[in-house]
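Aim 2 progress update. The chain analyzed this quarter is reproduced below.
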Amino acid sequence: MYLLEIDDFRILIDCGLDFDLDEKGRKLLYEEQKSVFPFEPSMVNIVLLTHAHIDHSGQIPNLYKEGFEGRVVCTEPTAALTELLLYDVARVNRRRVENQQTGAAGKKRRRKRKEFPKDLYLEKDVAEAVNNFVPVAFGKSYRLSDHVQATYYPAGHLLGAAHIFLEIFEGGKRKTICFSGDLGRKNYPLLVDPAPVPAADYLICETTYGNRRHEDTTTPEDALMAVIRRTCVERPGRLIIPAFSVGRTQALLHVLNRLYVRHKLPPIKVFSDSPLAHASTRVYQKYYRMLNREARDFQEDENTLFDFENLNYIASTADSHNLNNYKEPSIIISASGMIQGGRVEHHVAANIQNPYATILLVGYASEGTLGWRLLNGQEHVNLKGEAVKVLANVEKIDVFSGHGDLSDLENFVKQQDPKQLKTVFLVHGEAESMLFFKSVLNGHDFPNVEMPERGASYEL
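Predicted structure tokens:
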């Protein structure tokens, strides 16, 4: 969340859930603030949303709950994907409420009048929020007020994701600010490359991979096919791919479709096991004209980006669990990508002691998650309170990572004019990542680099 104040006009850029804080930490913060937010939501005039992911969009319903009455401006695909994600959070929240209100334990909780977290919202709150979304097109300048106009540029990373470039006119002067959002990478399956943005006076830049370069140099098709061959042909066994439902699953399914069309994919079943992923896939299919040239050409030739023989969409929870009874070689793609919640948890639990199975990690995993523990080679992991020996093969490829790496971030900032750019603000990254990237930028004649703390204020 970034709050930009221009006289009495207030713009909130992104409004995401904070995954750095656990429930206890959030509760303490909200009590201290007397709100979910460190500002008065009713005083915000407009929200500009870079993309749909929950760490950028997940608090929007709470903004309305606490008095915000303005609009949320984003691209059309971002509006569609954000709606899916917010309703998914609301459904999880509803189950949480219902679990606390039923059974003997629930009765005890009711007697204690247990309070629900301040940031818990339900479907009706999402409905109010999404009714106020205003879609905009890339590359077109929009006037937000008498003194502010915004232009959205493709950022890659996710369908509809944007860099937001703001022009502010005050006192006869023009000031420009660019918010990177999350930066994508070149030649990513389905997505357009990040677009260059105009020279700005101030740049707010993400740093997720500010100290790392992607390791894989092969194509996504070759990298994925090599794992499939080792796991499903040479053994033969089962391939479990934890993947986020919005973005990562679509890239995987499209690459599998390309392999199928080229007669490289062996005749094995592929199971996509995530209702949210199915809905997101339909959004990608609907907005295929906003994807890259290769994807658009594929759609014109094959009439589908994702569907191919042997691809099965799993809808019900019962069918998901029944996959454990399928003994032939297969590929299961299921959420979440970090193996923290979602159906993939039971797939991993059922196969973690199967030496014929491979768990393939295809993206970033936060410290402490099961995905992180597997990536770090832990021989035993805790599943439902029990230490379990890891006998399955664990592999990693990073060609499906949706974030640009150090080189991509470097090139993004170097598009700017060092003589015009007054300050670069580094955000959205671990401390060591920001520090390393700051040193890199200092070496490229960008001397004024800030790493804001939570709640820091700057006058531009």
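DSSP finds 15 helices and 20 strands in the chain. The mean pLDDT is 93. These observations will guide the mutagenesis experiments scheduled for the next reporting period.
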